[in-house]
């Protein structure tokens, strides 16, 4: 592609004492792309995501967000990202509207009543705008979290297992919102343990294991590439190779803690 990446990670190396968490990891995410970072527990996903968020400094490597080196210009780089964590904890006594106003203030954004109404309507919570967030369902809280992460219209979104614990309807609704954000111009880095989710919404995925990226490609491309791999065919359960079969075939079937 000839477009400048929304996110470029080069030769990332992260260790904790003698334990290497991430080794020589490189990948790029382009405008209007949903990129899935997949891997079993302990593969290095969280450390990679933390480095992109600017929460930890890698020993080696560089990260560019919208062409800005996060190590050299951390505030400017981080202003271009929005983050939704797996478990977002709001002040339970605040209403949906109050949460949105609070986060808008943190971003230095002033929202009038019309803008607030449009946001809560867009996330299908107009009837619940005055409800306390502690009274919302998990799916409703995740919609609020996604709204707060995008109030400042960041070009890059980091979504850390955003649909964990959601029922099928809430999960599908969130998938549609994520796809709509991509279509509106956002780039998205998504971590998930759900291969169904990765296959449904990601344009490309990277599979990590033991701190390294094993493969990168679209879900369909990876399935086609590895459909005849003996290790993949050995774990296939219904004859038709899926992304989950590729994932387990490449990373192994042992349970990770």
The rough form would be described as globular
Number of helices: 10
What letter string, H or E per element, gives the SSE order?
A: EEEHEEHEHHHEHEHEEHHH
The percent of residues in helical segments reads 25-40%
- Strand percentage lies at 15-25%
Count of strand segments: 10
> What class, by secondary structure content?
alpha/beta
Explain this structure.
It is a single chain. By secondary structure, this protein is α/β, with parallel strands linked by helices. Helices cover 36% and strands 23% of the residues. It is built from 10 helices and 10 strands. It has a 6-stranded mixed beta sheet with strand order 6-7-8-3-9-10, sandwiched between helices. A 4-stranded antiparallel beta sheet has the order 2-1-4-5. The longest helix has 16 residues. The radius of gyration is 19 Å and the shape is globular. The relative contact order is 0.16. The mean pLDDT is 92.
Name the descriptors.
257 residues, alpha/beta, 6-stranded mixed β-sheet, 4-stranded antiparallel β-sheet, 10 strands
